[in-house]
Amino acid sequence: MADTTYPSDAYPFDIGACPSPAYVVDDALLRRNLELLKEVQVRSGAKILLALKGFAMWDTFPLVSQYLVGTTSSGQDEARLGAETFGGEVHVYSPAFTEPEMDVVLRYADHISFNSPGQWRHFRDKVASAPRTVSCGLRVNPEHSTGEVAIYDPCARGSRLGTRAVHVNAEVLDGLDGLHFHTLCQQNSDALEATLAAFEKKFGEYLPGMRWVNFGGGHHITRPDYDVERLVRLLCDFKARYPHLEVYLEPGEAIALNTGYLVCSVLDIVDNDGPIAILDTSATAHMPDVLEMPYRPEIIGAGMPSEKSHAYRLGGMTCLAGDVIGDYSFDRPLEIGDRLVFTDMAHYTMVKTTTFNGIRLPSICRVDETSREVRTVKTFGYVDYMQRLS
Question: Where are the transmembrane segments (predicted)?
Protein backbone atom coordinates (compact mmCIF):
# COMPACT_ATOMS: atom_id res chain seq x y z
CA MET A 1 0.00 0.00 0.00
CA ALA A 2 1.31 3.42 -0.96
CA ASP A 3 1.86 6.34 1.36
CA THR A 4 1.39 9.28 -0.99
CA THR A 5 0.24 10.20 -4.48
CA TYR A 6 2.89 12.83 -4.99
CA PRO A 7 6.61 13.28 -4.27
CA SER A 8 7.09 13.90 -0.54
CA ASP A 9 9.05 17.10 -1.12
CA ALA A 10 5.96 18.63 -2.78
CA TYR A 11 4.12 18.70 0.53
CA PRO A 12 4.59 21.56 3.01
CA PHE A 13 4.79 19.14 5.95
CA ASP A 14 5.13 15.43 6.68
CA ILE A 15 1.68 14.14 5.74
CA GLY A 16 2.45 10.79 7.34
CA ALA A 17 2.95 12.38 10.75
CA CYS A 18 -0.75 13.00 11.38
CA PRO A 19 -3.75 10.68 11.71
CA SER A 20 -6.09 10.22 8.74
CA PRO A 21 -8.31 12.05 8.29
CA ALA A 22 -6.97 15.21 9.91
CA TYR A 23 -7.22 18.96 9.60
CA VAL A 24 -3.75 20.45 9.70
CA VAL A 25 -3.15 24.17 10.30
CA ASP A 26 0.25 25.62 9.42
CA ASP A 27 1.34 28.20 12.00
CA ALA A 28 3.66 29.93 9.53
CA LEU A 29 0.81 30.55 7.10
CA LEU A 30 -1.48 31.63 9.91
CA ARG A 31 1.05 34.17 11.16
CA ARG A 32 1.48 35.48 7.62
CA ASN A 33 -2.23 36.29 7.48
CA LEU A 34 -2.18 37.83 10.93
CA GLU A 35 0.72 40.11 10.05
CA LEU A 36 -1.28 41.51 7.12
CA LEU A 37 -4.36 42.00 9.29
CA LYS A 38 -2.27 43.81 11.88
CA GLU A 39 -0.93 46.09 9.16
CA VAL A 40 -4.48 46.95 8.09
CA GLN A 41 -5.39 47.80 11.67
CA VAL A 42 -2.35 50.00 12.18
CA ARG A 43 -2.74 51.88 8.90
CA SER A 44 -6.50 52.36 9.08
CA GLY A 45 -7.24 52.69 12.77
CA ALA A 46 -9.96 50.04 12.46
CA LYS A 47 -10.17 47.03 14.77
CA ILE A 48 -10.37 43.47 13.46
CA LEU A 49 -12.17 40.70 15.32
CA LEU A 50 -11.99 36.95 14.75
CA ALA A 51 -15.41 35.60 13.73
CA LEU A 52 -15.63 32.30 15.57
CA LYS A 53 -18.32 30.99 13.22
CA GLY A 54 -15.60 30.69 10.57
CA PHE A 55 -12.56 29.62 12.59
CA ALA A 56 -12.62 28.54 16.22
CA MET A 57 -9.51 26.40 16.64
CA TRP A 58 -8.81 27.71 20.10
CA ASP A 59 -5.46 25.96 20.37
CA THR A 60 -4.19 28.72 18.03
CA PHE A 61 -5.67 31.59 20.04
CA PRO A 62 -2.49 32.41 21.98
CA LEU A 63 -1.00 33.23 18.57
CA VAL A 64 -4.05 34.92 17.01
CA SER A 65 -4.74 37.10 20.05
CA GLN A 66 -1.34 38.75 19.61
CA TYR A 67 -2.71 40.40 16.47
CA LEU A 68 -6.49 40.83 16.78
CA VAL A 69 -8.49 42.74 19.39
CA GLY A 70 -11.07 40.09 20.21
CA THR A 71 -13.75 37.77 18.89
CA THR A 72 -17.25 37.98 17.53
CA SER A 73 -19.75 35.22 18.17
CA SER A 74 -23.18 34.04 17.20
CA GLY A 75 -24.49 33.06 20.62
CA GLN A 76 -23.78 32.04 24.17
CA ASP A 77 -21.30 29.21 23.63
CA GLU A 78 -19.12 31.07 21.14
CA ALA A 79 -19.19 34.10 23.42
CA ARG A 80 -17.98 32.03 26.34
CA LEU A 81 -15.30 30.37 24.21
CA GLY A 82 -14.02 33.75 23.06
CA ALA A 83 -13.96 35.18 26.57
CA GLU A 84 -12.28 32.18 28.16
CA THR A 85 -9.76 31.18 25.49
CA PHE A 86 -9.05 34.35 23.48
CA GLY A 87 -9.68 37.34 25.73
CA GLY A 88 -9.95 40.90 24.51
CA GLU A 89 -13.27 42.26 23.31
CA VAL A 90 -16.24 39.93 22.98
CA HIS A 91 -18.89 40.88 20.41
CA VAL A 92 -22.14 38.94 19.95
CA TYR A 93 -24.82 38.93 17.27
CA SER A 94 -27.73 36.56 16.72
CA PRO A 95 -30.90 36.76 14.63
CA ALA A 96 -32.75 36.22 17.92
CA PHE A 97 -31.85 35.51 21.54
CA THR A 98 -33.79 33.45 24.06
CA GLU A 99 -34.12 34.62 27.66
CA PRO A 100 -31.78 31.95 29.09
CA GLU A 101 -29.24 32.57 26.34
CA MET A 102 -29.21 36.31 27.00
CA ASP A 103 -28.48 35.62 30.68
CA VAL A 104 -25.32 33.80 29.60
CA VAL A 105 -24.36 36.27 26.89
CA LEU A 106 -24.46 39.15 29.37
CA ARG A 107 -21.76 37.43 31.45
CA TYR A 108 -19.27 37.66 28.58
CA ALA A 109 -20.26 40.24 25.97
CA ASP A 110 -18.78 43.70 25.61
CA HIS A 111 -20.88 44.47 22.51
CA ILE A 112 -24.24 43.00 21.48
CA SER A 113 -25.79 43.65 18.07
CA PHE A 114 -29.54 43.01 17.98
CA ASN A 115 -31.19 41.94 14.75
CA SER A 116 -34.42 43.90 15.20
CA PRO A 117 -35.89 46.79 17.18
CA GLY A 118 -38.20 44.25 18.80
CA GLN A 119 -35.31 42.25 20.24
CA TRP A 120 -33.68 45.45 21.50
CA ARG A 121 -36.91 46.56 23.23
CA HIS A 122 -37.39 43.11 24.70
CA PHE A 123 -33.93 42.88 26.26
CA ARG A 124 -33.19 46.55 26.91
CA ASP A 125 -34.00 46.45 30.63
CA LYS A 126 -32.14 43.18 31.11
CA VAL A 127 -29.04 44.68 29.51
CA ALA A 128 -29.31 47.78 31.67
CA SER A 129 -29.45 45.69 34.85
CA ALA A 130 -26.55 43.41 33.87
CA PRO A 131 -23.59 43.30 36.27
CA ARG A 132 -21.22 44.54 33.55
CA THR A 133 -21.56 47.36 31.04
CA VAL A 134 -22.52 46.18 27.57
CA SER A 135 -22.57 48.42 24.49
CA CYS A 136 -25.51 47.58 22.22
CA GLY A 137 -26.17 48.16 18.55
CA LEU A 138 -28.59 47.27 15.78
CA ARG A 139 -27.81 45.19 12.72
CA VAL A 140 -29.15 46.96 9.66
CA ASN A 141 -29.79 45.83 6.10
CA PRO A 142 -28.39 48.21 3.46
CA GLU A 143 -30.48 46.35 0.85
CA HIS A 144 -27.55 46.26 -1.55
CA SER A 145 -26.59 42.79 -2.79
CA THR A 146 -23.07 42.23 -4.11
CA GLY A 147 -22.70 38.45 -3.81
CA GLU A 148 -23.39 35.78 -6.42
CA VAL A 149 -24.53 32.90 -4.19
CA ALA A 150 -28.08 33.41 -2.93
CA ILE A 151 -27.72 31.27 0.19
CA TYR A 152 -25.00 33.66 1.44
CA ASP A 153 -26.77 36.95 0.57
CA PRO A 154 -28.08 38.73 3.70
CA CYS A 155 -29.53 41.48 1.48
CA ALA A 156 -31.66 39.14 -0.64
CA ARG A 157 -35.34 39.94 -0.96
CA GLY A 158 -37.16 38.66 2.11
CA SER A 159 -33.97 38.36 4.19
CA ARG A 160 -34.47 37.91 7.93
CA LEU A 161 -31.04 39.38 8.70
CA GLY A 162 -30.84 43.03 9.72
CA THR A 163 -33.36 45.87 9.91
CA ARG A 164 -34.27 47.84 6.79
CA ALA A 165 -34.07 51.63 6.76
CA VAL A 166 -37.85 51.94 6.50
CA HIS A 167 -38.07 50.49 10.03
CA VAL A 168 -35.33 52.66 11.57
CA ASN A 169 -35.76 56.07 13.17
CA ALA A 170 -34.36 58.06 16.09
CA GLU A 171 -36.82 56.48 18.52
CA VAL A 172 -35.82 52.96 17.46
CA LEU A 173 -32.14 53.79 18.00
CA ASP A 174 -32.62 55.41 21.40
CA GLY A 175 -30.12 53.89 23.83
CA LEU A 176 -28.09 52.13 21.15
CA ASP A 177 -24.38 52.85 20.60
CA GLY A 178 -23.71 51.31 17.20
CA LEU A 179 -24.82 50.09 13.81
CA HIS A 180 -23.77 46.78 12.33
CA PHE A 181 -24.03 45.60 8.74
CA HIS A 182 -22.87 42.31 7.26
CA THR A 183 -23.41 41.82 3.53
CA LEU A 184 -20.25 40.30 2.03
CA CYS A 185 -19.08 36.74 1.40
CA GLN A 186 -15.55 35.99 0.17
CA GLN A 187 -15.40 39.37 -1.59
CA ASN A 188 -12.93 42.08 -2.47
CA SER A 189 -12.87 45.66 -1.23
CA ASP A 190 -14.79 46.97 -4.24
CA ALA A 191 -17.86 45.17 -2.85
CA LEU A 192 -17.30 46.89 0.49
CA GLU A 193 -17.02 50.24 -1.28
CA ALA A 194 -20.39 49.76 -2.98
CA THR A 195 -22.01 48.50 0.22
CA LEU A 196 -20.60 51.33 2.30
CA ALA A 197 -22.09 53.89 -0.09
CA ALA A 198 -25.50 52.21 0.23
CA PHE A 199 -25.15 52.03 4.02
CA GLU A 200 -24.31 55.72 4.37
CA LYS A 201 -27.11 56.72 2.02
CA LYS A 202 -29.70 54.84 4.07
CA PHE A 203 -28.31 55.22 7.59
CA GLY A 204 -25.76 58.05 7.49
CA GLU A 205 -28.05 60.51 9.27
CA TYR A 206 -27.83 58.38 12.42
CA LEU A 207 -24.04 58.02 12.53
CA PRO A 208 -23.33 61.28 14.41
CA GLY A 209 -25.19 59.82 17.38
CA MET A 210 -23.37 56.50 17.37
CA ARG A 211 -20.15 55.39 19.06
CA TRP A 212 -19.20 52.52 16.76
CA VAL A 213 -19.93 50.86 13.42
CA ASN A 214 -19.31 47.21 12.60
CA PHE A 215 -18.63 46.47 8.90
CA GLY A 216 -19.25 42.75 9.43
CA GLY A 217 -17.37 39.96 7.71
CA GLY A 218 -16.85 38.48 4.28
CA HIS A 219 -13.76 40.64 3.64
CA HIS A 220 -11.23 38.34 1.91
CA ILE A 221 -8.34 40.52 3.05
CA THR A 222 -5.65 37.84 2.96
CA ARG A 223 -6.51 36.54 -0.50
CA PRO A 224 -3.61 37.21 -2.91
CA ASP A 225 -5.67 39.41 -5.25
CA TYR A 226 -7.44 41.38 -2.52
CA ASP A 227 -7.08 45.15 -2.91
CA VAL A 228 -5.72 46.02 0.54
CA GLU A 229 -4.91 49.59 -0.50
CA ARG A 230 -8.53 50.24 -1.41
CA LEU A 231 -9.65 48.79 1.93
CA VAL A 232 -7.28 51.01 3.89
CA ARG A 233 -8.40 54.04 1.90
CA LEU A 234 -12.09 53.25 2.52
CA LEU A 235 -11.51 52.84 6.23
CA CYS A 236 -9.41 55.98 6.54
CA ASP A 237 -11.90 58.05 4.53
CA PHE A 238 -14.80 56.77 6.63
CA LYS A 239 -13.01 57.59 9.86
CA ALA A 240 -12.18 61.04 8.50
CA ARG A 241 -15.89 61.63 7.92
CA TYR A 242 -16.84 60.24 11.33
CA PRO A 243 -13.79 60.65 13.57
CA HIS A 244 -15.78 59.87 16.71
CA LEU A 245 -16.68 56.35 15.53
CA GLU A 246 -14.83 53.15 16.36
CA VAL A 247 -14.81 50.91 13.28
CA TYR A 248 -14.79 47.11 13.46
CA LEU A 249 -14.35 44.39 10.87
CA GLU A 250 -15.03 40.78 11.75
CA PRO A 251 -13.80 38.38 9.06
CA GLY A 252 -13.64 34.67 9.75
CA GLU A 253 -12.16 33.37 6.53
CA ALA A 254 -9.47 36.04 6.19
CA ILE A 255 -7.81 34.88 9.39
CA ALA A 256 -7.45 31.25 8.33
CA LEU A 257 -7.61 31.56 4.53
CA ASN A 258 -5.07 29.24 2.84
CA THR A 259 -3.56 28.20 6.19
CA GLY A 260 -4.87 24.65 6.52
CA TYR A 261 -5.25 21.25 4.91
CA LEU A 262 -7.36 18.13 5.16
CA VAL A 263 -5.27 14.98 4.96
CA CYS A 264 -7.22 11.86 4.07
CA SER A 265 -6.70 8.36 2.67
CA VAL A 266 -8.07 6.20 -0.14
CA LEU A 267 -10.09 3.31 1.32
CA ASP A 268 -11.35 1.66 -1.83
CA ILE A 269 -11.62 2.08 -5.60
CA VAL A 270 -14.78 1.01 -7.42
CA ASP A 271 -15.98 1.49 -10.97
CA ASN A 272 -19.22 2.92 -12.35
CA ASP A 273 -18.67 4.48 -15.76
CA GLY A 274 -15.19 5.31 -14.51
CA PRO A 275 -13.06 4.79 -11.41
CA ILE A 276 -14.36 6.14 -8.09
CA ALA A 277 -12.07 6.48 -5.07
CA ILE A 278 -13.79 6.25 -1.70
CA LEU A 279 -12.00 8.30 0.95
CA ASP A 280 -11.98 8.19 4.75
CA THR A 281 -13.43 11.70 4.77
CA SER A 282 -16.73 13.16 3.58
CA ALA A 283 -18.00 16.25 1.82
CA THR A 284 -21.25 16.29 3.74
CA ALA A 285 -19.73 15.57 7.16
CA HIS A 286 -16.28 17.16 7.00
CA MET A 287 -16.36 19.87 4.32
CA PRO A 288 -20.03 20.78 3.84
CA ASP A 289 -19.30 24.00 1.96
CA VAL A 290 -18.23 21.80 -0.96
CA LEU A 291 -21.92 20.92 -1.33
CA GLU A 292 -23.48 24.13 -0.02
CA MET A 293 -21.49 26.70 -1.96
CA PRO A 294 -20.84 24.55 -4.04
CA TYR A 295 -17.16 24.39 -5.00
CA ARG A 296 -14.38 21.98 -5.92
CA PRO A 297 -11.48 22.04 -3.43
CA GLU A 298 -7.92 21.76 -4.68
CA ILE A 299 -5.73 18.73 -3.99
CA ILE A 300 -1.94 18.98 -3.96
CA GLY A 301 -0.58 17.24 -7.04
CA ALA A 302 -3.98 16.67 -8.68
CA GLY A 303 -5.38 18.27 -11.81
CA MET A 304 -8.67 18.82 -13.55
CA PRO A 305 -10.51 15.65 -14.70
CA SER A 306 -8.79 15.36 -18.09
CA GLU A 307 -5.57 17.19 -17.29
CA LYS A 308 -3.49 14.24 -16.10
CA SER A 309 -3.29 10.60 -17.15
CA HIS A 310 -5.50 8.98 -14.50
CA ALA A 311 -8.93 10.41 -13.67
CA TYR A 312 -11.08 9.61 -10.65
CA ARG A 313 -14.25 10.74 -8.98
CA LEU A 314 -13.62 11.21 -5.26
CA GLY A 315 -16.41 10.30 -2.87
CA GLY A 316 -16.97 10.25 0.86
CA MET A 317 -17.82 7.38 3.15
CA THR A 318 -21.38 8.32 4.16
CA CYS A 319 -24.53 6.73 2.77
CA LEU A 320 -25.59 10.00 1.10
CA ALA A 321 -25.55 9.35 -2.64
CA GLY A 322 -24.43 12.92 -3.26
CA ASP A 323 -21.45 12.73 -0.91
CA VAL A 324 -19.13 13.44 -3.82
CA ILE A 325 -16.19 15.83 -3.54
CA GLY A 326 -15.44 16.14 -7.24
CA ASP A 327 -13.56 14.84 -10.26
CA TYR A 328 -9.75 14.92 -10.33
CA SER A 329 -6.83 13.48 -12.27
CA PHE A 330 -3.41 12.27 -11.15
CA ASP A 331 -0.03 11.48 -12.70
CA ARG A 332 -0.25 7.85 -11.64
CA PRO A 333 -3.06 5.50 -10.65
CA LEU A 334 -4.40 5.85 -7.13
CA GLU A 335 -3.88 2.93 -4.78
CA ILE A 336 -5.66 1.94 -1.60
CA GLY A 337 -3.77 3.58 1.25
CA ASP A 338 -2.69 6.64 -0.73
CA ARG A 339 -2.98 9.90 1.14
CA LEU A 340 -4.50 12.98 -0.48
CA VAL A 341 -4.15 16.53 0.78
CA PHE A 342 -6.95 19.03 0.24
CA THR A 343 -5.90 22.68 0.52
CA ASP A 344 -7.55 25.67 2.21
CA MET A 345 -9.35 23.54 4.78
CA ALA A 346 -9.06 25.59 7.97
CA HIS A 347 -12.10 27.90 7.83
CA TYR A 348 -15.71 26.71 7.74
CA THR A 349 -14.58 23.10 8.10
CA MET A 350 -13.83 22.24 11.73
CA VAL A 351 -16.68 24.52 12.83
CA LYS A 352 -19.21 22.77 10.56
CA THR A 353 -18.33 19.09 10.91
CA THR A 354 -20.97 16.50 11.82
CA THR A 355 -20.95 12.88 12.93
CA PHE A 356 -23.59 11.91 10.36
CA ASN A 357 -23.59 8.12 9.93
CA GLY A 358 -21.47 7.95 13.08
CA ILE A 359 -18.43 8.95 11.08
CA ARG A 360 -15.67 10.16 13.33
CA LEU A 361 -14.54 13.74 13.12
CA PRO A 362 -11.10 14.39 11.61
CA SER A 363 -8.26 14.89 14.05
CA ILE A 364 -6.89 18.42 14.46
CA CYS A 365 -3.17 19.07 14.00
CA ARG A 366 -0.75 22.00 13.80
CA VAL A 367 2.54 22.46 11.98
CA ASP A 368 5.17 24.31 13.99
CA GLU A 369 6.31 27.37 12.05
CA THR A 370 9.99 26.85 12.91
CA SER A 371 10.64 23.13 13.32
CA ARG A 372 7.90 22.11 10.82
CA GLU A 373 6.98 19.24 13.13
CA VAL A 374 3.35 18.11 13.10
CA ARG A 375 1.58 18.05 16.46
CA THR A 376 -1.76 16.31 16.91
CA VAL A 377 -3.87 18.64 19.05
CA LYS A 378 -7.07 16.61 19.26
CA THR A 379 -8.49 13.27 18.21
CA PHE A 380 -12.14 12.25 18.34
CA GLY A 381 -13.81 8.95 19.11
CA TYR A 382 -17.01 7.22 20.16
CA VAL A 383 -17.67 9.44 23.16
CA ASP A 384 -17.71 12.58 21.00
CA TYR A 385 -20.40 10.98 18.84
CA MET A 386 -22.38 9.48 21.73
CA GLN A 387 -22.50 12.69 23.78
CA ARG A 388 -24.19 14.56 20.92
CA LEU A 389 -27.19 12.27 21.43
CA SER A 390 -29.25 10.91 24.26
Answer: none
